[in-house]
Structures are given as C-alpha cells and as structure tokens.
Amino acid sequence: MSSRGPGVFTSPSVPADSYRRSGTCSPSLDDSAVVITTLALPSDHHVVTDESGARSVPEAASWQKEQFSLAFVHAVATRAGCTIADWKVDKDGVDVTLRQGGRMVDLQMKCTCVPRVTQAGYSFPLDTKTYDKLRDAERSAPGYLGLVIAPENIEDWIDHRPEEILMACHGYWAKIQDRSDPAVGDTKSITLSSDNVLDAAAIRDMLDFSLEMIRRGVA
C-alpha cells in the first residue's frame, strides 16, 4: 500500500504523538488486525479557506461523529466474527451490542476530534448516568466505553480510492463494568489506555470476559 504525499498509513494503534509523522509504511494483516487502516494526513490536506483566505476547518456535527464511531465498531466487530445489534433508543447507556454465540458485550461509542491526551493515553468525560449504567453489577452483558479519534477536518475522515475506502481514525476502549469508584458531578473522567486499541483482538477479549461473568453466576 502506498502513501499519499507525506501521509502515513498506520495500524489503529498509532500513538497520538505520531499521528502526523511523515514517512511511509506497509501494514500487514494478521489474525488480530482490523480491516480498517488508519490514515495520517498532512496538516495542509483539504484546507478550506473563507473569502478572506483564512484557514477554515469544517466542523463535524454530533450526529456525524456518532455515525462515524458506529461505522468503525461495525467494521471491527464484523472482522471479529460478531453479529451486531444497534439500539434506536439510548435508554440503557448502550449504542451497540456485540454477540458471538451466547456471549454478548455492550458498548457505548463516542467520537472526538480533539482528544484529551494523558500520560496513559486519553481521557474522556462520560456522563454520570451512562457511567452508572455501564458499571451496574447486575448487567447480563459487560459494559464498555469505546472512543474513536478522528481528524478535526471532516473532509479528511474518508479517503476514497479505486480499490478501497480508508477511514482516518483510531479507536480505544475502557472496561466500565464492575467499577466501584462513583462519579462525582455530571461527568466521570474515563482513562483509555493507548494500549487498549479497539480492534478484533480486543473484542475477543471482551467476549471472553463475558463468558467469565456467565461462569461466575453474574449473568
């Protein structure tokens, strides 16, 4: 796979500090790889200017970020061999439920274009109601938070090519199930380790934890 100008094709585990690093690479797919390839683009790619010539970046609406995060998890979960259920009403703090046989995992998906970077990886302010629902000890499927990080310029989200479509993003996850620390205020700051890449291997690990819950009699 060739690069585009100074852009880089990387795996979904590309660290935040190298998101716009120049160079080229050719990723290989193994059993744990994801069919989505993250695309790092040069900072002047698709620059939009207003009448005065000033730089202007098209801002993504909340619904667009929501749909982009769902598209990401659909592709990754399909790669992991899961069936996917979307919930039209976000009543229980869940956007999608992934299923493989009798094992199930609940995910609340978020997308940001301006991630809060920490020493461990990233931080996301999850609303308290959703946090409490995802960590509920009486859940029959473990609750997770998924965070998709996309470029600020929405024009850079998708790269159409004759043989493929590339999503310029990378995703991470945090297990909320069984957390004992209560939220204080309207939001709970959730740390998502840069090691917790949301890929097919991670989803298999989530399903294994679901099986553990069943065996210990939580479900």
SSE order and pairing:
Blueprint: E1 8-10, E2 38-40, E3 48-49, E4 55-56, H1 62-79, E5 83-86, E6 96-100, E7 103-112, E8 116-117, E9 121-127, H2 128-134, E10 143-149, E11 158-160, E12 165-167, E13 170-175, E14 187-193, H3 200-215
Parallel strand pairs: 7-10
Antiparallel strand pairs: 1-2, 3-4, 5-6, 6-7, 8-9, 9-14, 10-13, 11-12
Order of helices and strands: EEEEHEEEEEHEEEEEH
- Which architecture per CATH? 3-Layer(aba) Sandwich
Instruction: Quote the distance from N terminus to C terminus.
Output: 45 Å
Number of helices: 3
Descriptive overview:
The protein has one domain: 3-Layer(aba) Sandwich (Trna Endonuclease, Chain: A, domain 1), CATH 3.40.1350. The chain is globular and about 50 Å long. By secondary structure, the protein is of the alpha+beta class. The chain has a 5-stranded mixed β-sheet with strand order 5-6-7-10-13, with helices on both faces. It has helices spanning 62-79, 128-134, 200-215; strands spanning 8-10, 38-40, 48-49, 55-56, 83-86, 96-100, 103-112, 116-117, 121-127, 143-149, 158-160, 165-167, 170-175, 187-193. It contains 3 helices and 14 strands.
